[in-house]
Write a structure and sequence with these properties.
Blueprint (H helix, E strand, L loop, with lengths): L9 E9 L3 E8 L4 E8 L1 H4 L2 H14 L10 E7 L2 E6 L7 H4 L5 H20 L12 E3 L5 E3 L4 H6 L3 H4 L12 H4 L6 H17 L9 H10 L13 H8 L10 H14 L1 H9 L3 H7 L17 H5 L3 H20 L3 H4 L26 H8 L3 H17 L13 H11 L4 H23 L3 H14 L4 H16 L1
Antiparallel strand pairs: 1-2, 2-3, 3-5, 4-5, 6-7
Helix pairs in contact: 4-8, 4-11, 8-10, 9-15, 18-19, 18-20, 19-20, 20-21, 20-22, 21-22
The structure holds adenosine-5'-triphosphate (ATP) and magnesium ion (MG).
Magnesium ion binds next to loops.
Length: about 475
């Protein structure tokens, strides 16, 4: 896959990984005869003048950030419309891959490392904006480093139209102020770091919901998540990082590190046992638990009902979140939907009474191509697997990510074998899942979320009577409301 990319001065050796908008290669920088990670941005970005300008500007500035816990940038440039960034090669993978194998003390160590890198960058006036497990990587000696400073800001400048159909991120670690598209400062990064630390310790994301929209909303409205009983002594750290109001968070990365030290000193026994402990999730897995999400009992599960019980306050906030999150969401939609996109300063909905069902989110041809390579039994098996996963995990994998979700699997199966009962049944069950979610959302006056869930359900089963009725109910409720 490295043959059609050529960057002068670099010899591409192999692909290291792919993100939403870039491919990262292991490359040899010929002038210095050293291995580097070469991040080559997607060509669609090059079409956007603001991105190009921001990428170079941010890159030049952030290349000046040198800190033991920030990824070192070596070079940035463009060649025939291809934008690239060469950085140190981090051979030991990302935090995402090792998240469920960490002991509490290892988790704390990583959070402290990243906080020190953030403290340095914040002091110089830089906000990362995309602190997440995929951007925390490891050197071969095990130290954690934060990658991609400056990239998120450049990406933010890209118009929704350019990004249509490309995944650009997740609201899982998003601060409340980011979800509301309010101005951010370093404390927003500390919030995201708190969400990452929470996931390392608790074995699950801070907020889980059937839909990314609801996740973004929960960052704004839901209480700070609680750690399992055994780790309750660390709760002050999560509280100090993830407070809704930035004023109530640790003011700096250093303040967080100092709080860590104080807590460890004040709880020597707990700290010692934290060093031994492996995460509850790992224990559950090694004990032969069948549930991938199994974790110790005391963690409060945020139920679907609870997500949907976001009432008066939620409805007020939704307008604010809509500005930020709907902008984010519109970037994920295929171009056909972009025409009714959401670049306005308030959430908009497409006309549910006359619009055809939204097209499946299989916009990118790569995802489609991959589906076409699967045989019918595999399509059905994957469809069943994603369906079971989604039913347990708040809708994840039912309709996203593109090409790797239950709807795409079943629809491709039906395209090959139009009478296939198993695929038809699967799609019916997905529609049923979203019908329940939409019913709850409607009951609580969350019209945008209702519309979203109905759209998802109809994508699975366009003629579903219950969903079509809900659509009419929604239109009525909006008229009256
Ligand atoms: N400096 C590096 N050294 C080694 N591997 C890297 C390096 N930078 C990135 N990678 C690999 O490439 C993958 C893609 O990175 P990229 O930054 O494009 O996406 P991401 O951060 O995972 O997600 P997103 O697109 O949402 O930012 C990473 O998950 C990682 O596996
Ligand atoms: Mg990255």
């Amino acid at each position: 896959m490295t043959d059609n990319v050529q960057i002068p001065g670099y010899r591409l050796l192999r692909t290291l990984g792919e993100g939403g908008m870039a491919t990262v290669y292991l490359a040899m920088q010929e002038s210095l005869d050293r291995e580097v990670a070469l991040k080559v941005m997607s060509p669609v970005l090059a079409a956007n003048a603001t991105f190009c300008e921001q990428f170079m500007k941010e890159g030049r500035i952030t290349a000046k950030l040198t800190h033991p816990h920030l990824m070192t940038v070596h070079d940035i440039g463009s060649d025939r419309g291809v934008y690239y960034l060469a950085s140190e090669y981090l051979p030991a993978g990302t935090l995402r891959e090792r998240m469920d194998r960490l002991s509490p003390s290892e988790s704390l160590e990583i959070a402290r490392d990243i906080a020190s890198g953030l403290a340095y960058a914040h002091e110089k006036g830089f906000v990362h904006r995309d602190v997440k497990p995929g951007n925390i990587m490891f050197r071969s000696n095990g130290t954690a480093v934060l990658a991609d400073f400056g990239i998120a800001k450049a990406m933010k400048s890209v118009s929704a139209a350019t990004m249509a159909g490309n995944a650009i991120g997740t609201p899982d670690y998003m601060s409340p102020e980011q979800a509301q598209a309010s101005p951010v400062d370093g404390r927003s990064d500390l919030y995201s770091l708190g969400a990452v630390l929470y996931e390392c310790l608790a074995g699950q994301k801070p907020y889980r919901a059937p839909d990314a929209y609801a996740v973004a909303l929960m960052h704004v409205t839901e209480p700070v998540p609680r750690l399992p009983e055994k780790l309750a002594w660390l709760q002050p750290l999560i509280d100090g990082l993830m407070a809704k109001n930035p004023e109530q968070r640790f003011a700096t990365g250093e303040a967080f590190i100092a709080a860590c030290d104080r807590l460890v000193q004040a709880n020597p026994q707990a700290a010692a046992s934290a060093q031994e402990q492996r995460s509850a999730r790992r224990r559950a897995v090694s004990a032969g638990s069948s549930s991938a999400t199994a974790i110790s009992q005391p963690v409060p599960r945020i139920t679907r009902a609870r997500v949907l019980r976001l009432t008066a306050i939620g409805a007020g906030v939704i307008v604010l979140v809509g500005i930020g999150w709907l902008g984010w969401r519109s970037m994920q939609r295929p171009p056909a939907e972009q025409a009714v996109g959401t670049t306005a300063a308030a959430p908009e909905r497409s006309d549910t009474s006359s619009a055809p069902s939204p097209p499946p989110i299989t916009g990118d041809s790569a995802a489609k191509g991959a589906l076409e390579k699967l045989d019918l039994p595999t399509l059905l098996a994957r469809g069943d697997e994603y369906l079971a996963y989604g039913q347990k995990n708040y809708g994840e994998k039912l309709d996203f990510p593109a090409g790797e979700n239950a709807i795409d699997m079943y629809q491709e199966a039906l395209r090959r074998d139009p009478g296939n009962a198993r695929a038809a049944k699967g799609l019916e069950q997905i529609a049923g899942f979203f019908e329940q979610a939409a019913t709850g959302a409607l009951r609580n006056g969350l019209y945008t979320a209702t519309d979203e869930f109905i759209g998802k359900g109809l994508r699975a089963d366009p003629k579903n009577a219950a969903l079509l009725k809900l659509k009419a109910d929604l239109a009525k409720a909006e008229q009256n409301g």
